[in-house]
Predict the structure.
Amino acid sequence: MPRTDALQGSLDLLVLKILSRKPRLHGYGIMSAIGERSGEVLRAEEGSLYPALHRMEEAGWIRAEWITKETGRRARIYELTAAGKKQLAAEEERWQTVTSAVNRVLRTV
Amino acid sequence: MYLWSRIANVFRGDRLNREIAEEFESHLADAVEEGRDPEEARRALGSVLRQSEASHDVKVVAWLDSLRADAIFGWRQLKRNKVTSGAAILSLALAMGACISAFRLIDALLLRPLPVTEPGRLSVVSFNGFGLEGKPYTYDSCSYPMFRKWRATVKHDAELIAISYAQRQDLTFGSDDQMEKAYLQNVSGWMFSSFGLEPAVGRLLTEGDDIEPGKHPYAVLSYDYWQRRFAGDPNVVGRTFRMGTDLHEIVGVAGKGFTGTEPGTVTDVFVPTMMQAGSINSANSFWLRTFVRPKPGVAIEPLRDQMYAVFRSFEQERAKTFTNFPKSLLDGFPRDKLELLPAAEGVSGMQRDYREALGSLGVLVLLVLFIACANVANLMTTLAARSREMALRVSIGAGRRRLVQMVLVESAMLALFATALGALFAWWSAPFVVRMINPPDNPARLVFPADWRVVGFGILLVFCVTLLFGFLPALRASGVQPISALRGGDETRGRRRLMHGTIALQVTFCFVVLFIAGLFVSSLRRLSHLPTGFSPNGILLLETVTRQDQPAVVWQQVADDLRSVSGVEGVAISQWPLMSGTMSNNFISVHNAPPSTVLAFFLGISPGWMETMKVPLIGGRDFRKADTNPQVAIVNQTFVKQFFGGENPIGRSFRTAKAQTQYEIVGVAGDAIYRNLREPMLPVVYVPLRTANSDGTVQSIGSGTFVVRTASANPSGLAPLLRREVSRARSELRVSNIRTQQEVIDAQTIRERLLAMLALFFAGVALLLAGIGLYGVLNYSVLQRHREIGIRLAIGAPRAGIAKLVVAEMLFMVAVGAVAGMGLGLVSARCLESLRFRVKAGDPVMLALPTLVIVMAVLFATLPAILRALRIDPAETLRTE
């Protein structure tokens, strides 16, 4: 099965969801987690992940912090803010509405 | 909060980019750790540069970021052209500083509301009437009985407040030797509560302090005076001062900011109106202004009509007490109309005297600012490297708006630097100008707070100026056609037209400034060369007062004492100095005829006064020691013309209308100015200083002026010595004020002197700036046409032809500008009627002078460019091409 890119517009939802389960992940970790959880079906485009993270950071949904890993390298980790939690709920609901609508179309036509 | 972090990120650009890069590095390291191929991982991440730019844009406010970039670039541009930028900033700073300064003056004197509650609800009573010569004039003085009547009539509709004219008074906090001067206003006790003022210490006056004449010797100091005189000592409450014979107790200090109701004068002491006991019940004593505060919801017109009705019946009643008043003047008395004028900004004589003067100065300053702006606009256009730079930017995809923004940011930076410098200039110059108003010993004082009004004006000015000199060049620059500019072609015609237009405009404005300056200067010359009819050289005036009136002999004895001081040539006494503003007048009746409708003006003098003042005695004799008033009089030539038809009046007599006293004319004096330089000669009657009562006893004298003629050209040097000498001769007499007669005369031309000086200064600046502008534009056009001129010279064009080529178009623009300036100048001169003195705007000399000056300046400015064009070496030019 070819690996599909995250659906258009769902990247924010995926990132927020991952961060709500596993806080304090860095960019590479978020990307790996999306792959893992989706059974390697979904994959975040590496090139668009960082601009998306920075945009959400500026929007106040997530918060970033520099930490030093055991290897001595610095890494930038992200976690959800209160606004982010609200945003996640909204996005999830929107997603459910859209998918159920799409499913209904698929069933009836 | 997020917006703020994005704004802050604009100024952390480097760190931001570093962090983004580091995050990518850490991502790649993680990928490699997982066993991925470094090359593949890098490819998967995509272009780091593009991504980091995308991330950068999310993290900052884009427009602010571009502004920051433009500011840095603009700063580099300004630094690169240090000399030109410096010159532009300096000339602009001078013009903007002058503008801010003019605004501060106009604002402080004319626009700023009084610091009272609801200043917009404050009006003042003013009268429009006709003088004896039928000329319209306005005044605002009222008597207390009239005020009282008004107050009782409109008490349900409005609150009325009586406030006297600010007077400079002698008062002392100790002994008589420690007399000092302070500005005093008599005010209604309820003024403070009506104005919503709070005390800084102690209490303020109340209605209860203003009931019975002479019974409320209390005083409130202004905050300014309290700080200046007592360094803010709170123990000042309870202290007393003596003024005349009244002892006043200080009950408090008014809150900061309130300096009376007369902009131009800072009132020091407020006392109740009732302490003006001598005038309080006199219907003929006009000494106060009436301020009106209508109650909420009360319209001003019915209120005015009500007050006008009261005024009419009051004045008609008063006219019944007039004796021997000319009948023709009694018809329809009073003819004056009452008005309620808005008084939010206070009311003062200085406002009236300087409104037009400051307005015209403001216009001059604006014209100078335009000239400076035109210069800077040309400078921005000429920066020769610009068209190539712009073309390059356009060809690599810069949008037009972005280019306009870039040039405007650079202009704004110029304007900001200029404003900062200009603000410094204004901070110094506005008080400097105010100090020159009024004589040096008693300067006018205006409060100049640096508040949002001034700052707001500054910001507005920067904005307007930036648009003025930045916008057109910005549009032009951004509209370049890259192809022709990069090819090095001369796409300069449009630009040249723009620059030539600004030259014409500059010449126009320069002409107007020069023309108006010329009007002011020649007005001043006419005024100061008017014959006064006496000689002020070496005359020192000792205005002297006594605690108790002293017999005339005592005064005479002091005069004799002063005569023995070395350096003194002559001493005489008069009631007051000529041209000091003090006056006494009366209607005259000759041969028992009905009284004249022309007033004669009176002055009491001692024997020898004529000789001391060098007023020529044309016929008859001077007064003798035994002469008394009434009995004999000396009249001037205008009096003879007016009342005796020019016939020899010696030995004849006349009566005054009011007191019905008879005078025999014993002498005729030459005309000397009695009151004001600007008015025609008045009929004057000199009477002996010694005044006899009806029973023949000689009255004592309370105040007078010793007129001292000294040998020195600078008589002020003798002042301290003479002051001591007066008190030494008779301790009862005290010199209250010493001035030279010249100072008294000069005090009448202060406004004209100020205007002439400032206008000359601005004319110089305008000429300099316009000259620099012309020089710059010509120089640039020679540079631009270097190649063309070289070729022409090479094929044998005559030198004269080259010179014509360079300057012809320019001279045409100068001519256009001069003609436009002439038209504009003539129109503007019409608005300056009241500031001109016997100078006709259409006078050919007045028009020729600025023309001549501009022609000279143009010659100066064009010569270097012509020389430069003629020195072009064709061989060299063609070699470099």
Q: What stands out?
A: Chain A has a mean pLDDT of 83. The longest strand of chain A covers residues 62-68. Residues 82-108 of chain A form the longest helix (27 residues). Chain A is about 60% helix and 20% strand.
